[in-house]
Amino acid sequence: MGIQSESALSQAYKLIENGNPEQAKVLLEDALTANLDSDDLVFAIHCCSFWTETFSSLPQLSPFEQGESLVNQWKRFSSLLKQEKHPLENTIYAFKKSVYSRALEQYKLAYEDKDEKFQSEIYRKVGLCYKRLGSYEMALSYLIKANTLNQDQAVILAEMADCYDLCGKTNAAKLFFREAFFIDASKIELDNLDSPLIFGLVEKVSEEGYKGEELQEWIPVYGRLLEIFNIKRTLKAQEVGKLKQDIYSRENEIKNPANNNKLIKPRLFNMYLWLIDHYIASKENVKRIKEIVLSIKLLDAGLYKRFIE
After folding, report:
1. How far, in Å, CA of 15 to CA of 22, rounded?
2. pTM of the complete model
3. How large is the average pLDDT for residues 12-21?
């Protein structure tokens, strides 16, 4: 890359980080006329084009809506980046810093006079912004606040787990990830997760041919089978009772051909695994454990082999 191109990119990054992609684009297009073969300049211009409309529309929105617009647009931007042949990390970082710094600022303006659930959502989004800006401990502190206000929410627990892993607290991460996916795998926003632990597991489940909703439901099953989610807890008596009821309901649902068994099957499998782990931890009668193991075999002979191995 020529000195002129480097200088233009450096100036553009400052404009981008200050929320001015439109000005950055003009500067970069001028530099491109002198260096038409620069893939880096072309990539940066495309990124500026993508973000210009979003940033120009922000003043018309409320603080919370501005935060949501930026965070949701980042998901679309991330999807497009996967298709790029020559992405430039410095350009991506400049936009990431710009987007999440602005979103953080706006979410914080939305703090006051809201009910607890809404307040919890703001804390969660503030946590996400801090995480994406690299402040993992700060992110975790806000996610813990979110969980205090609105407990047992899969989406919050998963993002707490994500931060625990990024903070180097792997056992806590494994425990909270397993808990989150057990509560409701479908509610977890995978796009908001960044940790090596969950990224590696998602990759392994993808290699099995699953995607979309189905992939999310199989994550806790493979997490347990691959001994990634290997930190467990003993269930309370009322939890055991509810788990058995849920298993009974899912077993009936899976018999009905009108239902979506592609989603019911992994959910039921995960429930069986939780009940087995509970029985083992509470030193339950071996006969009960064998009954659940047999149910797993009838549900999926292939995965049964993986389980007994």
Report:
1. 9
2. 0.93
3. 95
